[in-house]
Amino acid sequence: MGMTKILYVEDEVFLGKIVQESLSSRGYAVHMVSDGAEVVAAMKAFEPDICLLDVMLPNRNGFELAQDIRKIQAKLPIIFLTAKSQTDDVLQGFQAGGNDYIRKPFSMEELIVRIENLLKLAGQAPNAPSAEENGQISLGNFIFDTRKYELRLGENARKLSHREAELLKILAEHRNFSVERKTILQQIWGDDSIFNSRNLDVYITRLRDYLREDPRIQIITLKGVGYQFVVD
User: Fold this and answer.
1) Position 129 confidence tier, pLDDT thresholds 50, 70, 90
2) CA-CA distances (angstroms) from residue 81 to 69, 140, 209?
3) Are residues 10 and 116 in the same domain?
4) Are residues 113 and 175 in the same domain?
5) Which range has the worst mean pLDDT, 59-63, 93-97, 115-119?
6) Which helix or strand (DSSP H or E) is residue 114 part of?
7) Are residues 15 and 98 in the same domain?
8) Is residue 27 in some structural domain?
9) How many CB atoms lie within 10 A of CB 70?
10) Does any domain span residue 144?
11) Residue range 104-126: average pLDDT?
């Protein structure tokens, strides 16, 4: 597999150069664009594996550009770079076709982790570790044993029901990314009926209660979309 190609759209020149150089030094091929009007042409010429997309841009904003990108390459991973933190802005980003977002200012380490996670989910990063290799997933201070249906915090272990464990597994596999409500319902219950949707609400509430002892873990409801399982 060749170098991962990143289309980086950023109008802050100083920040852009720092990020571009940092990514290049880590082995990525980076093409930076500073004007929203140039993005579509750059997409077609560069054929990136992933796009880093600033929200506030001249001529076209990031949300509009994400919709254009989706028409060209429907499955291209998109990470929004934004100074905005309101839930409505985050929701708008997901609705526009984004897969993830990162708030400015951000660390390069966090950005690279998010890039690699998205590439793994898209099947572009070989040898991605499977959560099932040892049956255990680390979630903040918790250890989730997918085989024993246990959620452990230190010496304390909580037994989960089958559906609680399946729901937590789906969320954990999509940590820090959005997962659609319909996807969860289809995977766990087999359909997205109103009755099962209400059951999902109950299970989400239970998991939030189980995980409340670690404030770094959140299950965020994205109205009209689904959920984002955040583990800082």
Assistant:
1) very low
2) 16, 24, 31
3) yes
4) no
5) 93-97
6) helix 108-121
7) yes
8) yes
9) 15
10) yes
11) 78
